[in-house]
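Hey, resending since the last one bounced:
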Amino acid sequence: MTIPQHPDLCIDLHCHSTASDGTLSPTDLVIRAREKGVTHLALTDHDTVNGLAEAEGAARAQGLSLITGTELSCLWKSRTIHIVGLDFEVGNAGFQAALERQNENRWARARMITERLDKLKVSDLLERATVVSGGDVPGRPHFARVLVEAGVVKDHAQAFKRHLGNGKPGDVKAYWPELSEVVRWINEAGGIAVLAHPRKYQLTATKLRELTADFRRAGGQGIEVSTSGQSSGDLGFLAELCRRESLLASQGSDFHFPGGSWCELGRIMKMPDGLEPVWHHFRQPLIGSLPA
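The structure tokens again:
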């Protein structure tokens, strides 16, 4: 369990619900977060804020503080990179328009995945995946669940291994805007742009330093130093990157579904000392939550 800066706080700033590719509804996600000891949570569904209103109601009922969030896809040197936006103004007109464009890209991708999997002869695949996603744009995990239910594969892992994983027919890349554009959207909405799970892009150390420098020059303000599935070596390397580029330090589980012991709400390695936490720079800084 993470205990960032103070034992009474448990802060998780990266997770997903059925509003994107998670398996829990926003309400159930918040309830689980509270059960796991999380005190401050950011729901960061992919390219949408559709789950935030429901999550806010659940957070009030659970006595948990919810921070506005989303995870936006973008391109850096033709690679797909994810940027988490935190503590932005949800009603910002420009940001809403940008999210709508991202949503259209995701629907185009979902339709292409459906076409690519047509040979599996699963009737109403897109419609069923949309139901699984709670009516929002289905992602690969939702398609995987339908394939399991249809008897095409035995489980989620097999669905990805045979049909949806990297290099498989259902691995469809969408068109995304450039990194600098996405960072600008977040900044103009009054939020903080954070480079998500940097070690998951399988970049060399040199390339990751280059990405981080470009992100900072584009106006990015934070980097996820602590995320699920990291080694202590990853943690130290990302802390060094954070210091090198004078970025704010963030953390999050990147939780998608229950049952993965390596990825649970609030279960994050403690960040190294000496970093400036991103939550100290929210519009209502969490530093104020600490006892005197």
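The first strand starts at residue 11 and ends at 12.

Sorry for the duplicate.
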